Amino acid sequence: MAKISVLGAGSWGTALSLLLHSNGHEVVLWSALEDEVRMLREKREHESKLPGVKLPESMEITADLETCLRDPDAAVLAVPSPFTRSTAKRMAPFVRKGQIIVNVAKGVEEATLMTLSEIIQQEIPEGNVCVLSGPSHAEEVGRGLPTTCVVSARDRKTAEYLQGIFMSPVFRVYTTPDTLGVELGGTLKNVVALAAGTADGLGYGDNTKAALITRGIAEIARLGIKMGARAETFYGLSGIGDLIVTCASVHSRNRKAGYLMGKGCTMEQAMAEVKMVVEGVYSAKAAKGLAEKYDVEMPIVEEVNRVLFEGKSPSEAVMDLMLRDKKVETPDLPWADEK
């Protein structure tokens, strides 16, 4: 049995707390919000973000960060990406040297273009920062539906240790050394999911969705490889796997926000309706910044930014994607008459 601290009591943090507790670990769940802590203690359920999923009475829930970080075997950081840096900064005084910190949020910081694990490492240099990602909606993990993720760490020993902590009969975990690829796949798919949801809101069909998913992973992989990640990662769980579920699922807040924009809502109206952090909106400018920094063509990301921040109509954005210059799908493959 391990002692696990979970920081962030939103839908994902709550679902992972229940998973880890069900695996036999001692779990402490932390929230910065006193009202949220009070509600979870009294109701043993997150009524707004994860209704119907009950937390056991034996699970400790606290707003005291020092208590939460009192010598855990692993600390799971599950706050929304815009709050990763501020939370890591608050954690730093209580983290021991070599402390395993597992980031489970997805995002890139707009101002610095740093991944979340880079931010955490910068704020907590003593920590051993790892990442868990993959196609894993909290609503399904909380209900114990079969799910598969991937964990990445600097060394095999740490990755395999975390694999053992998280793995269960309904939660299968793979390992990989490609932390950058795992984070980029998990972040950039949210931007593509906004486009997929917008297409749904416009009334387009499965052909459109398949095109966005396929060309979306091509964009993500192009950027990731240029940044030093491995191509194999983008065709795995944290790449195409996460992209498919986020573009298609009724649980996807990014798809829902895009859908509402396709129906005529502004970005602000869509985010208010979703009532949770829409990570793709926060990641869109960062994705565009990375594309410019590494000189990588990312037309879907470009059009999403124009719709979000420049007032371009979604239907016009789709038309401009369709009318781009003619391209070769596999530019590295030779033609028979040119060998």
Explain what the structure shows.
There is one protein chain. This protein is α/β, with parallel strands linked by helices and 339 residues long. It folds into 2 domains: 3-177, NAD(P)-binding Rossmann-like Domain (Rossmann fold), CATH 3.40.50; 180-322, Orthogonal Bundle (N-(1-d-carboxylethyl)-l-norvaline Dehydrogenase, domain 2). Helix content is 51%, strand content 14%. The chain contains 16 helices and 10 strands. An 8-stranded mixed β-sheet has the order 5-2-1-6-7-8-9-10, sandwiched between helices. Helix 12 packs across helix 13 (267-274). The longest helix has 23 residues, at 179-201. It is globular, with a radius of gyration of 20 Å. The model has no long low-confidence stretch (mean pLDDT 94).
